[in-house]
């Protein structure tokens, strides 16, 4: 079965066929770096990360480009307010975005920055003007003339018949039914940053950067264009208008949009007190792996409601998966195989692939892995798993994790990095550090060798019946976040 994806442009779920047989070219709208990324942003970035990982697992060679919007109305305003340059203002949040993405195991796309493409944008606008799609106003701003592009509205399915030719809007984000000529280039305003270019001084509107950078990196026509659902109009509609009027070609074949995240049943908003950045959640002691898991639990087009109860159960799901893998890797199995178990592993891998082929049905894929886990655990309890079966189960688990990426036991150092950041930010931030975070991230880190050394000392103490010493060593390990278990195959350990 081929991959099937919902395409906002056609309004249907369609078979996905790249333009070039084995190569996929995709573009995602990245963050506007005026603040720390919130969990809504990361729902979208993780959904696109899953798509990227699954395309590669399916055998495609993927070129994945993401932009960083490091100039827009808000950034210019905030930089002027703080008395710093645009670059100084955005550097900190760009860095934070890269760190947060790494913490959430989001694979790094090819990143392109708006401010590094200002001259190309000016050139693009000059070409649009030459073709009659753009015009200059008296103050030196440029606008796109939407009356010249009859297909305007084809992505958002808006009917703009009867619009007034020449009515203009110059803010980056505007009302959802606004049929207005939009700004391509804004003349300088007193006290605000601007660039000197071939079309005069000023700064780009928000939409032009994505047209310029996507076409520069991927060509005039490419396979996939992604973003959150709020970008359908006006941002993506405007990208299509700019790019297609210039190139005469279809910009992207598939438009992939991720549904907005709700928090505790409501739209996320600072005024409702339900607005969370990734860092806010880690400061409260939540693990990045639980957050990543929760954000993938509902397929990208369905409503996902983020709740703290949900986060707790996500943590327990990840824990179960890690325990299962631990069990498979630390038990001594008898040689040979039990065909029923090998078959279970193979069927589960196939179920996961077909769920993801079905418009990235992540819930179904997760259901499949837990079905396998339950059945395999029962078989493990009954000593019915042999060496070859354990390998097959592990292979399925690893394949699942190539997409979901929660098995690696590295929450502790990641949380420690947020703890260090909060302390460095000063007393206000440091106040938000929770006892839960301190318990997980603040514990001393022991190396594998140190742990093994302590375990053998513990064993020796136990053998010589010095239980006081062996208990003290065990407590030392537990305090350092190490779980120690005695099994029939000897002592096993792992990090919490
Ligand atoms: P921004 O930094 O505001 O430009 O947004 C970066 C990405 O996050 C865009 O693709 C947005 O569509 C997406 N996004 C913003 N808010 C949410 C939300 N609540 N749920 C899902 N995606 C969002
Ligand atoms: Zn964009």
Salient structural properties:
Isoleucyl-tRNA Synthetase, Domain 1; globular; 48% helix; 6-stranded mixed sheet; alpha/beta; 17 helices; binds zinc ion; 18 strands; 496 residues; binds adenosine monophosphate; Rossmann fold
Account of the 3D structure:
- Strand 12, helix 6 and strand 13 form a beta-alpha-beta unit.
- The protein contains 17 helices and 18 strands.
- Strands 6, 7, 8, 9, 10 and 11 form a six-stranded mixed β-sheet that branches.
- It has 496 residues and is α/β, with parallel strands linked by helices.
- It binds adenosine monophosphate (AMP) and zinc ion.
How would you concisely characterize the structure shown here?
With 496 residues, this protein is an alpha/beta fold. It is 48% helix and 17% strand. The chain folds into 3 domains: 4-258, Rossmann fold (3-Layer(aba) Sandwich), CATH 3.40.50.620; 266-404, Isoleucyl-tRNA Synthetase, Domain 1 (Orthogonal Bundle); 443-495, no CATH class.
**What is the CATH architecture descriptor of the largest domain?**
3-Layer(aba) Sandwich
The counted number of beta strands is: 18
Which oligomerization state do the chains in this entry correspond to?
single chain
Biggest beta sheet attributes:
6 strands, mixed
Rg, rounded, reads 26 Å
Bound molecules: adenosine monophosphate, zinc ion
Q: What's the mean pLDDT score?
A: 93
Which homologous superfamily in CATH is the superfamily of the largest domain?
A: HUPs
Shape: globular
Termini gap: 39 Å
Q: How many structural domains can be distinguished in the coordinates?
A: 3
